[in-house]
Amino acid sequence: MKGMRFPDDVPVLTDGVVTLRAHRESDISPMVEMARDPEFIRWTTIPDPYDASNARHFVDEIVGPGWERHHHRGWAIEYLGDDGVARFGGNIDVRGVGVADVGFGLHPAARGRGVMARAIRLALRWAFERGGIEVVHWRAHVGNVASLRTAWATGFTLHGTAPDFLWERGRALDAWTGSIRPDADGTPRTPWWRSPVIEGEKVRLRPFKDTDVPRMVEACSDATTRLWIPLLPDPYTEADARTYLAAASWQAATGSMAAWCIADPDTDELAGNIAVLRMNARTETGEIGYWMHPSARGRGMVSEATRLAVRHALTPIEQGGVGRRRLELFAATENGPSNAVARNAGFDFVGTRHRAERLSDGTYADVNEYQLLG
C-alpha cells in the first residue's frame, strides 16, 4: 500500500460516538493540556516540559511523514461530550508494516468514557482491512493499569511481562505485552476479576490503594509473616509492594486472581491481604491465601475476611461472584492460627503433605491441605 498525503488522504473513521481524523491546528492546545497531565507524563516518553512547539513537531514531523511513508499511521481522537459537542480526546498510532504496534494517549477530560476502546477498535479494523497489517502488538509499563484495562477490553491476548523491554527516560523498564490478530472480535478474551467492596462486622474487603503501601511493607517485613511466606523479597521495600499490586492487576485481567485489602471498617487502614489465587477456568477451582499486619492479629479479622472471600468465590458469576466450585487452602502444620482460619471458614481437612514447603529459616514444613466445595 502506497503512502498517503497528510492531511488530505487520512481516512476518517467513526462509530457515531468516536471519530478518528487527521490532526488540526485546533488540536494543539488540548494536546499540550494532555501532555502536561502527570499521569500522561508518568507512562510516556514525551518531552517534559511540553509546549505547543512539541505538539506541532509531533504532527508535522512524525504523524504527517508517517502517513506519507506508510510506516506510522496516526489519528486525532474526537468524541462527543455530554452536551453533544465534538471534542479532542487524544492520539492513537499504528506503527509498522505487516507487524505493527499500537500507541495511544487520552486527554484527562475524555477518560472513563470508553473513548479509547472505541478508538482502538476503529484503528485496528482499518489496519487489518486496509493497512496491510497482520498482527498488532501492545506494550505498556508494568503498573499502567489503565492501558492494561484498554488492551484487555479490546480483545488483545495478554502475553506476560517482558523484563527490561522498554528504554525510557534513561532507564530500562519491564513491560506488559499483548497482541491481536484480525480474527479477534474486539471483546475481552478473559474475565477480569474485580475486587468489589465487601462489608463485614470486623473487616472491610476493598481494592488496594497506593496509600496502603507503607503498611504492606511493615506487614511483609514482619518475622512471622516472613517465616510462613518464604518467597517474600528481603528486604521488602515499597517497590516490592507496588510490584505485587501490579502483578495482582495483571492476574485479575487474565482471570487468575482476585485480591483484596483487608481493612479496618472504622479507619479503613490496611489490616492484611486476602486473595482467591490460581483460578483455573477449565476446572473452576481456586486457592485462598492471606497474610495479616502484626497489629491486626488475634482479633478475628482474618477469619471473617476468609469467610467473606470464600462466599464471593463460590457465588456464581452471573450473580457477581467468581463462580468457583472448589477451593483449596494450605497451612503449615505448625501454623496454628492459619489452620484455625481454615476450620473456621468451613474447609474440610484433606491430608498432610510431608516436608512440602521450605520455610525462611531453612527448615521444611509439613503442610495441611484443606478443601471446600461449592
TrEMBL record:
Keywords: Acyltransferase, Transferase. Transmembrane segments: none annotated. Residues 18-174, 203-366 form the N-acetyltransferase domain. Pfam families: Acetyltransf_3 (PF13302). PROSITE patterns: GNAT. The keyword Transferase applies. GO terms for molecular function: protein-N-terminal-alanine acetyltransferase activity. The keyword Transferase applies. GO terms for cellular component: cytoplasm. PANTHER family: [RIBOSOMAL PROTEIN US5]-ALANINE N-ACETYLTRANSFERASE, GNAT FAMILY, PUTATIVE (AFU_ORTHOLOGUE AFUA_3G00765)-RELATED-RELATED. Belongs to the acetyltransferase family. RimJ subfamily. This is GNAT family N-acetyltransferase. It comes from Solicola gregarius.
